[in-house]
Amino acid sequence: MTITHEEFQARAKEFLQANAVPHSQPPVEWTEESLVAECRRFHQALADADLGGITYPVEYGGLGLDKGYLEVFNQELSRYQAPLVPAAISHGMCLPVMNDFGTDEQKARHQARIIRCDELWCQMFSEPGAGSDVASLATRAIRDGDQWVLNGQKVWTSGAQYCEYGLCVARTDPAQPKHRGLSMFIVDLSLPGVDIRPLRQINGSSHFNEIYLTDVSVGHDCLVGGEGNGWNVAVAMLMYERVAIGAGGSGAMSRSMGSAKLITEARQRGRDDDPVVRDAIADLYIRERIQKFIGMRIRQAVESGKAPGPEGSIAKLNAAILSRRASDVAIELAGPSGQAWNAKDEDADEWANAVIGAPAMAIAGGTNEVQRNIIGERVLGLPKEPDPFKGQPWEEVPRS
Predict the structure, then answer these.
(1) Active site residues
(2) Angle made by CA atoms 39, 41, 44, in degrees to the nearest 5
(3) Quick one: pLDDT at residue 29?
């Protein structure tokens, strides 16, 4: 495709005007079911308008353009409410990993369908006994001819209830140290033996799931990155995840409870002259600006062809801290109305949801403690935490 940035921007603006709602208008109210349907519709329309898969190869459903065009599109998109959340993992993590590690056959089979949201994907990493230390996972995959048989349990799998496929990391060689004997598999979530169960959150929603795998048989052609290379694939996916969470702006609270929203609320509640409130919102605004600059730096590095690195952990950690600070300011402003409200007021619970939802940012994509370890080791050059079982076969390491 031959097109200038200006022409591409005009095309993006025209599309978004017809298919999305500006942030200047009232928030769009979607149920989970309608949001997923709208997400699919939106991305299918994007692809039909030659705006989907901007940086991905043409032969696999993309446009084959450089990342500068993606930045142009994202700048226009930032002005609109769009139903993107259900595809955040599918597009932000699974798609780039498929592009980096998938075989030509896998890309031809899936990549265009992921871009169009004909297929939504999730990632199947964490387990009850392997949360922060994903490499200690126990889900097994045993070779049986040209098939692999998977058994185990995954947990905290976002969006699995509406996804068609998952990328699942499993142990294929327990005689190897924990980081080596892993492989990544494409798992069709409609296969016999896949049991998806929702996990109810404190706010009543169920975005996460636990998945039980019982004698789930997948073909050898479902290996992504080759046998035994699962840890490298997983690390790449985690880096993409942290970049997606941390480099997208000023964190999850940026629009729902960011400084602009809180300034408006402070004025409406007559507290805009309160020096404590003003100081807290000013501090929040500064931190939001810093987060935006971190995001810009990461996106520029990616645009220059660099793979996501430990800087994604800096953005992810800062986004989690920012979300918590924003929710603290929000609930202080709300006062008693943040804890008890008129049942007929459909919007009053946003304050409580902001507070009880903010801690999730410190867990999703790796805990704050994990991010600090990565920053300490890979950015500051500090020594790693001691591991008395380093290099030992996974099957010989004691587990609870």
Answers:
(1) 241
(2) 105
(3) 83
Q: What is the mean pLDDT of each run of 10 residues along the chain (400 residues)?
A: 91 96 86 92 96 96 92 91 94 95 98 98 92 88 97 95 98 95 98 96 84 98 97 89 63 62 89 92 92 80 68 85 89 83 73 81 82 90 88 86
pTM: 0.86
Long-range CB contacts for residues 108-113, cutoff 8 Å, separation at least 24: 108/59, 108/60, 110/165, 110/186, 111/53, 111/56, 111/60, 111/61, 111/62, 112/47, 112/53, 112/60, 112/61, 112/62, 113/61
Domains of the chain (ranges; CATH) run: 5-83 (no CATH), 122-230 (2.40.110.10), 247-379 (1.20.140.10)
d(CA 20, CA 369): 37
Amino acid of residue 301 = A
Kindly tell me the burial class for residue 84, based on how many C-beta atoms sit within 10 Å of its own C-beta (0-12, 13-18, 19 or more): middle
CA distance 254 to 358: 12
pLDDT, position 333: 87
The residue behind tokens 């097994």 is 140
First to last CA, the chain: 55
In residues, how long is the chain? 400
Asked if 165 and 119 count as a contact pair (C-beta separation under 8 A), the reply is yes
Round to whole Å and give the CA distance between 112 and 101: 16
> Going by C-beta distance under 8 Å and a sequence separation of 6 or more, which residues neighbour residue 282?
none
Task: Take residue 128 and report the two structure tokens written for it.
Answer: 């009850």
